[in-house]
């Protein structure tokens, strides 16, 4: 489904600011894998997401989606089969457009005919049902401007927009980090529900270790541009935060130094 081989990314190569953001990344995901990604600040998590989504091109190595080499495919073309939700609830939606218009925009990304045909009765019903599945009562407010929604509601709509067309790959970039605990929990639960229902292949970056342990079937820890831990299924279910801290110390010979990770 998703395959990265020998992926390297260096910023400002040959200068004093040279930074190896990704160092020989090999990663292979099966359909339906839900991978949580943790790691200290600057570990390379966002760079990895940007390379998968096409925002960045690797210096060496390749990215394949469903067997197709997409390494040089620009972001706008990849957005047909990649859904992404960012940390900032403002990032995924257009505030001056209504909920329905935002959904129509997301829908048109994967369905070229939909822009020409506008919002038909059948499609409006599909949007209404999709929004109802969030259990937030927003299906009664399809004509409300998204800018008027709370951060949590807006992030729920972003999540829906990224997923209701069933993308091949879903990228979640600390998408609950900017929300208060109650709303963060709500979005976490919605994420679990949506990913399970559609069996979406998902990568989720989080600084919250508990969330990384509770969600998904696989956990990856990154450090200094490398994947240093890759834990799956049963082994993941038995892990605790202390185990993860100990593993990091065993591998790197130092304590995991990230206040955000520890405090989450
Ligand atoms: N556009 C860029 N130009 C120069 N250096 C960059 C750029 N983007 C990332 N880096 C550097 O590459 C490294 C990896 O950054 P990245 O943002 O991928 O880390 P991260 O794991 O997402 O960190 P955080 O948890 O702090 O968001 C860091 O040292 C960062 O400073």
TrEMBL record:
One GO term describing the cellular component: plasma membrane
Pfam short name (any one): ABC_tran
MF annotations from Gene Ontology: ATP binding; ATP hydrolysis activity
Start and end residues of each ABC transporter domain: 2-249
Gene3D superfamilies on file: P-loop containing nucleotide triphosphate hydrolases (3.40.50.300)
Membrane association type: Peripheral membrane protein
Compartments (UniProt record): Cell membrane
Primary localization: membrane
Protein name as catalogued: ABC transporter ATP-binding protein
């Amino acid at each position: 489904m998703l395959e990265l081989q020998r992926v390297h990314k260096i910023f400002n190569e040959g200068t004093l600011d040279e930074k190896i953001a990704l160092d020989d990344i090999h990663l292979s995901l099966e359909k339906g894998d839900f991978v949580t990604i943790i790691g200290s600040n600057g570990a390379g998590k966002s760079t990895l997401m940007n390379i998968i989504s096409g925002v960045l091109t690797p210096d060496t190595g390749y990215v394949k989606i469903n067997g197709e080499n997409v390494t040089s495919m620009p972001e706008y073309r990849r957005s047909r089969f990649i859904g992404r939700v960012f940390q900032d609830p403002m990032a995924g939606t257009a505030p001056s457009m209504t909920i329905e218009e935002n959904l129509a925009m997301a829908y048109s990304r994967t369905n070229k005919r939909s822009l020409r045909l506008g919002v038909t009765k059948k499609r409006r019903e599909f949007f209404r049902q999709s929004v109802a599945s969030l259990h937030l009562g927003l299906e009664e407010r399809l004509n409300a401007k998204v800018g008027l929604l709370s951060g949590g509601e807006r992030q729920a709509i972003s999540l829906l927009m990224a997923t209701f067309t069933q993308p091949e790959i879903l990228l979640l970039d600390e998408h609950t980090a900017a929300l208060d605990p109650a709303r963060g929990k709500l979005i976490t639960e919605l994420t679990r529900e949506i990913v399970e229902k559609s069996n979406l292949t998902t990568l989720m970056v989080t600084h919250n270790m508990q969330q990384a342990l509770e969600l998904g079937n696989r956990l990856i820890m990154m450090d200094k541009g490398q994947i240093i831990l890759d834990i799956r299924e049963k082994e993941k279910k038995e892990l605790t935060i202390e185990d993860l801290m100990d593993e990091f110390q065993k591998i790197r010979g130092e304590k995991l130094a990230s206040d955000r990770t520890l405090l989450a």
